[in-house]
Amino acid sequence: MMLQMDDELARAMAEFQRCIEDRDLSAAERVLDDDYALVLVAPARAVMPRHRWLEVLEDYVIHEYVVEEQVVDQDGDGAAVAHRVRMKATVLGVDRSGIFVISDVWRRSPGGWRIWRRHSTPLSAGTLPGVN
């Protein structure tokens, strides 16, 4: 059974994408959970915590971003979103273009929906610069 995504979650997801594309730091601070992290498993495991992600945002330039497929599963105060995206981007001056499989984990708090984790696996891109 496919669960329906609520409007508040849809708005939060759109705001997260907008803040990335516009490199909007104040919007990002509102939509990111306090414990947010970008997690990569390929080509090597790496974790970019919230503070570092916010530092890099200014130098994360998206030239094109196309969602090729998206699945949203929401249950109560939690949601998992899987995407396959085609992106042309430059991160810290390094090309970060390719096809990615991305899984986002969202949590609803009294302040609304916040993204807690983004797991990103590049299918055809190189290493993400700026990640330890």
Describe the 3D structure.
The protein has about 130 residues and is an alpha+beta fold. Helices cover about 25% and strands about 50% of the residues. It has one domain: Nuclear Transport Factor 2, Chain: A. The protein is built from three helices and seven strands, in the order H-H-E-E-H-E-E-E-E-E. Strands 1, 2, 3, 4, 5, 6 and 7 form a seven-stranded mixed beta sheet that branches. A hairpin with a 5-residue loop joins strand 1 (about 30-40) and strand 2. The termini are far apart.
Q: How is this structure best summarized?
A:
23% of the residues lie in helices and 52% in strands. It has 132 residues and is of the alpha+beta class.
Please write out the topology.
Layout: H1 7-22, H2 25-31, E1 32-40, E2 46-49, H3 50-57, E3 60-75, E4 78-91, E5 94-95, E6 98-109, E7 112-122
Parallel strand pairs: 1-7
Antiparallel strand pairs: 1-2, 3-4, 4-5, 4-6, 6-7
Helix pairs in contact: 1-2
Question: What distinguishing features does this structure have?
Answer:
132 residues; Nuclear Transport Factor 2, Chain: A; seven-stranded mixed sheet; 52% strand; globular
* Percent range of helical residues: 10-25%
Structural class: alpha+beta
In round numbers, the mean pLDDT is 91
CA-based gyration radius: 14 Å
Please summarize the sheet with the most strands. Answer: 7 strands, mixed
Architecture in CATH? Answer: Roll
Low-confidence stretches: none
- Determine the CATH topology: Nuclear Transport Factor 2, Chain: A
